[in-house]
Amino acid sequence: xxxxxxxxxxxxxxDLPSKRLLSAVASLTRWKxxxxxxxxxxxxxxxxxxxxxxxxTNVSKHMLMLLKAGLVRIGPGRLYHLTDLSRPDPTTNEVxxxxxxxxxxxxxx
Length: 109
What we know:
- The protein is an alpha+beta fold and about 110 residues long.
- It contains 4 helices and 4 strands, in the order H-H-H-H-E-E-E-E.
- Strand 1 (about 70-75) and strand 2 (about 80) form a beta hairpin.
- The protein starts with 18 loop residues before the first helix and ends in a 6-residue tail after the last strand.
């Protein structure tokens, strides 16, 4: 390999989404959770579990991943809320995370 050759991409690592963020959005269950939370109300794990048809234990594990990625926060009463970073634009139902744009299904009613 010549001294001028590079083995890395021209993209800066700061331009790329974090592994934690990519992992957080790489699950159908977490997409369902984000979609349920997109209305903006705080929700308990048990409520989310009922709405998406999963166990509370399973949802709790997924919430931890979303929490670590900075997509949700825990408020008073153990209610989970979307962070400002992950709150969808009400006109498009899209969440712009910089390198990633999440397009959530439109909520009915």
